[in-house]
Design brief:
Layout (H helix, E strand, L loop, with lengths): L15 H14 L5 H8 L3 H7 L12 H10 L1
Helix pairs in contact: 1-2, 2-3
Length: 75
């Protein structure tokens, strides 16, 4: 896994984990990475990552009709 360095203003009070989860949740929401990849990125289990998505305003449910029909078919 690659690492990046970000310069954050000193007056922003963010913990490293909070920033990582924020970034991972946005990447997941924008469908850049999967929930499993996002969970791995922040060092959480997939279940734990999905459980905290609401805190960041990210739905774990797809808005795509095709995805919904696929989920129903595979249930």
């Amino acid at each position: 896994m690659r690492a990046i360095t970000l310069n954050i203003p000193d007056d922003i009070n963010l913990k490293t984990l909070d920033l990582s989860i924020y970034l991972a949740s946005k990447m997941y929401e924008d469908e850049i990475i999967s929930s499993g990849q996002a969970a791995k990125m922040v060092g959480l289990s997939k279940r734990s990552f999905i459980e905290i998505m609401g805190k960041y305003g990210v739905s774990v449910f797809s808005s795509s009709t095709d995805d919904l029909l696929s989920d129903i078919k595979n249930a």
